[in-house]
Amino acid sequence: MAPSILIVGAGITGLATAIALQRHGYEVSVAEARRDVTPGAGISLWPNALAALDEIGLGDQVRGAGGRVTAGALRWRDGSWLRRPAPQRFTRALGEPLVVIRRAALTEILSGALHPGTVQYELTARDIEVGTSGVRVTFSDDSVREADGLVGADGVDSVVARHLNGKLPRRYAGYTAWRAVANCPLDAELSGETLGAGSQVGHVPLGDEHTYWFATQRAPRGQAAPDGELSHLRQHFASWAEPIPTLLATTDPDQVLRNDLYDRATARCWARGPVVIAGDAAHPMRPHLGQGGCQGLEDAAVLGALAVQGPDLAAAFARFATVRRRRVMAIVRESQLIGRVVNLRPPVLGATAMRVSVLVPEFALTRHLASIAARGAFAPTG
Predict the structure, then answer these.
(1) Residue segments in the chain with a per-residue pLDDT below the cut of 50
(2) Residue 315 burial (C-beta neighbours within 10 Å; 0-12, 13-18, 19+)
(3) What is the rounded radius of gyration, in angstroms, for the C-alpha atoms of the chain?
(4) Residue 203's beta-bridge partner residues?
(5) Which residue, of 175, 220, 229, 284, is most buried by count of CB atoms within 10 Å of its CB?
(6) What pLDDT is attached to residue 373?
(7) Cβ partners under 8 Å of residue 331, min gap 6
């Protein structure tokens, strides 16, 4: 009989992990606390994430459902160029273009690759018990699920991570983010980010007719714009160079998402016995390298590859924790550092630091980016 694995969390990491394990013959079930798991506008999938999707058999399907990005420009708020990498160098270094896809479309592709009935919704994990024969999880409706192994893919506030580590308090990063899709195309040359003191806007094409964008700004936590989030953004970024005003002018106000940005105390234990955590449950990271979801997809592919090497789940999970920690925690730290620089106080310090960063040679920056996000940066067995 095939070993059984219960996954808590049906976000990108949880669904991809379920696919990877099912492909290798495991009996997989997924429990998700929410009914709707598709919030979010879009997501950029770097070549390392596309390589992980290839490993679980979905790379081409995802490429076909998204738009391609072949360069990553950096400009100041007045439109002056800070960096303008040649598309050929960018793509050659990474192995292929980025893919930008709506989160709902990515979730649909992942869900569609699972056996029918794999995911059950509105189930919040409450208690976890580990015994000699496996794992027993009690949910908020008092139902109980038993399995040979447990994967926690339940995000920053992970119940499974707290089971392994005790309290893991959130920490507010000091700034908030907005995301949406604009109903207008974007000149491919402008794909990248526009920066200003204490704020930034990212913008990448989402097919031929839409643009995915995000914006950040220092703000107290838990705030809401009294006249609406989009109205606030249009006023705040009114003097910024194109394409920012046009992106905001062609965005549906009801589609703008606002989220305060948090990181979390480090989870020192990622695996113990038949229990392991992955994605944001193990290593939440700030968005500045665009690797949060990408590293979750890497986690999924590596978990699947290691689990198939032998019947000992505890050994596979321990190996996963060892090899993934080496790669992922460096990205977590770098993302955090970039966020601190962008949001230095007073804002003029952040502005100065960002402008000075252009002194780093293009070849050195591209080589470093490739070490994080190129196809070759991902290894299926860690």
Answers:
(1) none
(2) middle
(3) 21
(4) 192, 213
(5) 284
(6) 96
(7) 285, 289, 291, 295, 372
